[in-house]
């Protein structure tokens, strides 16, 4: 017997399917289905994915389940998860069976205004998600997530700070203001955020993210990080810059910037992870040479 009029492309609660006469327990034990958690099954043909695991957790959690933390961050399209990858995170209002390994389930209730429906799931808003990560995750990871969520949710750091005040005392809430002051919705990648945090931590003036350079009416470039007062730019050279056509455009772009008096410091992944002192030294050299008092 096959499931009819049932979401065969996503997890479902087995007891409800059996009760509705759509499938039998015997069929569920056969090759056509997979058990993902207690009372939670999916058709065997459905491929494994992060989204599948999150949906399975919601089915398992029941109607009060809310996706939170890093899982909510991912569901909002913010692919900024730290390594090692964090567990699936969920809040439920009532006690459930013990969750499978790799799931982090908390009991409690969230304010109605902090929960929205998105793609048939209940999850925390981008602002509430940023708040939870700011109080519970390591600071740099929380800022990386905060940047991405602020861009998605259309809020800024001061709004996150006010949000924390409105919620009052919660575990880790004292950590939120420090994260909120570093959140920048203009950041466009996790590594851009991490480079920015490193230069600020080294004592340099905060750079401007995604600074646009114009030559009169002509657009020249948008810089990852920049100190416009001294015309110093810091660019992270990720994998997408490696293609020959992109490399050629980058060379032309840097030539134009140099012609306008800019100096561009390019940071590769290897330099960032293996020679971080080189980045600090180069930024210091260029800013000092152009009159910055550090």
- How many separate structural domains? 3
> Numbering strands along the chain, what is their spatial order in the largest sheet?
9-10-11-12
**Can you give the helix content as a percent range?**
40-55%
* Main sheet specs: 4 strands, mixed
Could you report the average pLDDT, rounded to the nearest whole number? 91
General shape? elongated
Low-pLDDT sequence parts:
none
Q: Output the helix-strand order.
A: EHHEEHEHEEEEHHHHHEEEHEHH
Q: What gyration radius follows from the Cα positions, in whole Å? A: 24 Å
- What class, by secondary structure content? alpha+beta
Strand percent estimate: 15-25%
CA distance, first residue to last residue = 73 Å
Number of H- or I-type helical stretches: 12
How would you summarize what this structure contains?
Helices cover 40% and strands 21% of the residues.
Describe the structure.
The chain has 294 residues and is α+β, with helices and mostly antiparallel strands. It has twelve helices and twelve strands. 40% of the residues lie in helices and 21% in strands. It is elongated and about 75 Å long.
Question: Key features?
Answer:
alpha+beta; about 290 residues; 3 domains; three-stranded antiparallel β-sheet; 12 helices; about 20% strand; four-stranded mixed β-sheet; Endonuclease, Chain A
């Amino acid at each position: 017997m096959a499931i009819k009029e049932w979401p065969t492309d996503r997890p479902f609660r087995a007891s409800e399917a059996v009760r509705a006469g759509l499938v039998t327990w015997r069929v569920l034990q056969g090759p056509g289905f997979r058990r993902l958690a207690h009372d939670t099954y999916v058709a065997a043909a459905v491929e494994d994915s992060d989204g599948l695991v999150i949906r399975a957790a919601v089915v398992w959690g029941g109607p009060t389940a809310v996706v939170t933390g890093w899982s909510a961050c991912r569901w909002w399209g913010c692919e900024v998860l730290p390594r090692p990858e964090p567990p699936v995170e969920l809040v439920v209002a009532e006690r459930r069976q013990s969750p499978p390994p790799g799931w982090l389930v908390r009991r409690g209730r969230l304010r109605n205004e902090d929960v929205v429906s998105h793609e048939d799931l209940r999850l925390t808003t981008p602002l509430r998600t940023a708040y939870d990560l700011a109080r519970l995750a390591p600071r740099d990871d929380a800022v990386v997530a905060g940047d991405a969520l602020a861009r998605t949710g259309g809020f800024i750091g001061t709004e996150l700070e006010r949000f924390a005040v409105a919620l009052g005392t919660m575990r880790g809430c004292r950590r939120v203001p420090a994260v909120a002051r570093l959140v920048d919705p203009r950041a466009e990648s996790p590594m851009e955020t991490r480079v920015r945090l490193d230069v600020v931590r080294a004592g340099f003036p905060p750079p401007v993210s995604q600074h646009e350079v114009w030559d009169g009416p002509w657009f020249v470039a948008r810089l990852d990080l920049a100190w416009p007062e001294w015309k110093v730019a810091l660019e992270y050279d990720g994998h997408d810059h490696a293609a020959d056509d992109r490399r050629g455009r980058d060379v032309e772009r840097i030539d134009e910037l140099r012609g306008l008096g800019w100096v561009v410091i390019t940071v590769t992944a290897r330099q960032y992870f293996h020679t971080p002192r080189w980045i600090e030294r180069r930024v210091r050299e260029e800013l000092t040479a152009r009159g910055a008092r550090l």
